[in-house]
Amino acid sequence: METFKPQNEWSQYKVCGDKDARERLIVQYMPLVKYVVERTGRTLPSDIEEDDLLSYGIIGLIDAIEKFDYNRGIKFGTYAIPRIRGAIIDELRISDHAPRSFRQKAKKMMGAYAEVEKRLGHAPKNEEVAKELGMDMKDFNNLLCEISKISLLSLESFVIKDEGSKVTIGEKLKNKEADRPSNAIELKDIKDALAKSIEHLTEQEQIVIALYYYDGLTLKKTSKVLNLSESRVSQIRTKAVLRLREQLDHLHKEDAL
């Protein structure tokens, strides 16, 4: 069997326009799509089919192959993963899996956390936010569990612009390509905004965010580290993300002024 040589395949396709080389590149880098689907699928409702996510991811992979400049010395995986994830997120938004009324409830809860924190001057307790929303704790906890399944609330899906493409914060922070001054400044701004927002979280929320988003642990593994149930960790993560998204949205609006 002939050994796959990326540099040869890229030159065959980009320089010579060899469509067979393009197909070989797609096949070679399909594991990137599977990786992103597995990672993204952890936060999605169970009714979303994995095959659909794979289809969306392949669209992102093909787009990344078309736009990739192999002469820049950047690893294709580093370039492609954010774009694969972005394609999946875009398709999910178009498909509108979360009902509008439900997303409005999630937005209302985000606002409630922000309002309670502003008024009381400390990290809101669930009971305080439930009271702000006029809900009993059973209904509040049920809503919090349901909100945790909405993909658009994920910290990783908070989209920013990167050279005309949509890139998520989660992937931007993991991207090692910060050699240009503009990239370094943008990356510092994002990290500063995140750090400023994370400072307002409780210690437990900070640990969950670090383990889940930065160390890449699953909810199951995170629950074992913290000796908590998966459902409890999911609630903590959702609450933290709601607060972070509210603060990041606020900072994003300020920057747009």
> What's the gyration radius in Å?
20 Å
Structural class assignment: mainly alpha
Low-confidence stretches: 159-166, 172-183
According to CATH, what is the topology of the largest domain? Butyryl-CoA Dehydrogenase, subunit A, domain 3
Distance between the termini: 58 Å
Number of E-state strands: 2
CATH class of the largest domain: Mainly Alpha
Please work out how many helical segments DSSP would assign.
13
Describe the main β-sheet briefly: 2 strands, antiparallel
What pattern of helices and strands is seen along the backbone? HHHHHHHHEEHHHHH
Relative strand content: under 5%
CATH architecture of the largest domain: Up-down Bundle
Number of domains: 2
Textual characterization of the structure:
The protein has 257 residues and is mostly helical. Helices cover 70% and strands 3% of the residues. The chain is built from 13 helices and 2 strands, in the order ααααααααββααααα. A two-stranded antiparallel sheet has the order 1-2.
Lay out the secondary structure.
Elements: H1 6-14, H2 19-28, H3 30-41, H4 50-67, H5 76-95, H6 100-120, H7 126-133, H8 137-147, E1 159-162, E2 165-168, H9 169-174, H10 181-198, H11 203-214, H12 219-226, H13 230-256
Antiparallel strand pairs: 1-2
Helix pairs in contact: 1-2, 3-4, 3-5, 4-5, 6-7, 6-13, 8-13, 10-13, 11-13, 12-13
What keywords describe this structure?
257 residues, mainly alpha, Rna Polymerase Sigma Factor, Chain: A, Butyryl-CoA Dehydrogenase, subunit A, domain 3, 2 domains, two-stranded antiparallel ribbon, 13 helices, 2 strands, elongated
